Amino acid sequence: MANLLVVDDEKSICEMLDIAFRKAGHRVDTANSVPEARQKLEHQIYDLIISDIKMPQSSGLDLLQYVRESHPDSLVILITGHESIETAVRAVQMGAFDYLIKTPSLVDELKFKVELALEISRIKQENVSLKRELGKQRGLEDIVGQSSPMKTLFELILSVAPANSTILILGESGTGKELVARAIHLHSSRSKQPFVSINCSAFQETLLESELFGYLKGAFTGATTNKKGLFEYASGGTLFLDEIAEMSLSMQVKLLRALQERKIRPVGGNEEIDIDVRVIAASNRDLQQMVEEKTFREDLFYRISVIPLEIPPLRNRPADISLLAFHFLKKFSSQMGKPIHKISSDAIRLMESYPWPGNVRELENAIERAVALEKGEEIVPDSLPERVVHGVDVKSNRSILTQLPEEGMDLERHIQQIERGLLEAALVRSHGVRTRAADLLQMSYRSFRHYAKKYGV
Asked: Domain range for residue 287?
């Protein structure tokens, strides 16, 4: 069973295909124009889209281009009543799965093409999953984002990966520092060798030393056998040191020596072992400030920050929130076997207004919770965590409306977002009756109409 969208300005075509594909066991939505189709695509994931080419306002080719850019996993089949070899070639070049002429046998032809497209898509997804399991993916697939800051980050990853230099990844907790480190590894010449990760904050100093450098039998109580350290396990590959700022000063000295000399000495041993490892470090703290405060060694800082990369927090890239939300919706609805493919416009608005102090990890947890709790086929505000619905940052227990980010904000744009959100909320509560919505906002209908026109509500 697949989720289909049929787009045609002829309602009879939509009705005919709706009936035919529902009988075949699929879920079907219809739209009579490209703007209506785009509105549906903003709130739902579709496996396949069947669209007419010639329609008022925008064409099926315009819709195809939009789908390829914003929903690259969705397949598109174009149909038309006017045969044109030039249009057919252009459609396939733009990424359409197929191009069909409206004939009396259209339904039968479409049924065959849809089943073929879905089967090919299923095989491709299985291949992608298998490659990911084998670690052969390019590494950027799990980092979701289309905003300008993320496009810049993708370019940096591809640029620095081939070098053998040490890299420092900076970013708040939950931004995906390990995903970036893995992407760098998979794009490097070391991609066929191990990627080994350790969180430095999870170990006491003595345990961290033995984890990194290994130990010899009898080195300490409980050391009954020799054990290799992570530097050895990562030989030829990449060692990812997460939360390196939590490492003690004395451990920093030992790490610095290993990086400079390219040698390690196991705990309890006298002989040194040569190492061939690329180190990628990460921290959610300001290491330069720690250097000034003498809590992080300056020489180690310059050693690990040969190439610094910074991951932007989620609040600085709101354009990625809905994209990430649908990414996680697809993941968890599949895992839990629940037929949830939509996110309501109210839920999207609330998520885009919330500052996400826990970043992408917090959003992922919120969508997982919503999928688990949702009883229908659409994520609605009631399924979201209370802090998201009410716009409250749990850490400060303050409304997001009065919180000023450290990097500052565009006040005028922020106020416009609030105004638009309140207009939309009033319309939802009044079931679309504008005079009632104006009353709820204690404003004249004329003023309400002005703001609605201003924000395109």
From this structure: 148-312
> How far apart are the C-alpha atoms of 340 and 332, rounded to whole Å?
9
Residue 398 lies in a domain: no
SS3 state at 76: strand
- Compute the average pLDDT of residues 56-66: 90
Q: pLDDT tens digits for 345-395?
A: 889 988 988 888 899 999 999 999 999 999 888 999 888 988 888 775 444
Residue 208 CA to residue 371 CA, distance in Å, equals 38
CA torsion angle 386 338 375 427 (round to 10): 70
Instruction: Kindly state whether residues 216 and 152 are assigned to the same domain.
Output: yes
- Where are the extended beta strands (E) located within 15-164? 27-31, 48-52, 75-80, 98-101
Count CA atoms closer than 13 A to 157's CA, side-chain side. Answer: 25
Does residue 122 lie in a domain region? yes
What crossing angle do the helices spanning 106-133 and 11-23 adopt, rounded to 10°? 60
* pLDDT given for residue 57 in this prediction: 83
DSSP assignment of 298-360 equals HHHHHHH-SEEEEPPPGGG-GGGHHHHHHHHHHHHHHHHT----EE-HHHHHHHHHS--TTHH
The 10 Å Cβ neighbour count of residue 195 is 22
* 362, 393 Cβ separation under 8 angstroms: no
Domain boundary among 99, 133, 167: 133
Nearest to 101 by CA among 134, 55, 53: 53
Domain membership flag for residue 400: no
Choice between 392 and 42, residue whose per-residue pLDDT is larger: 42
Other C-beta atoms closer than 10 Å to the C-beta of 394 total 12
- 221 versus 372: the higher-pLDDT residue is 372
CA-wise closest residue to 275 among 166, 171, 378: 166
Q: Give pLDDT tens digits for 317-339.
A: 888 999 999 999 999 998 999 98
Q: How many other CB atoms are found less than 10 A from the CB of residue 103?
A: 12
Q: Output the pTM of the full model.
A: 0.62
Shared domain check, 153 and 82: no
Q: Provide the token pair at 85.
A: 């070899």
Q: Are 438 and 446 in contact (CB under 8 A)?
A: no
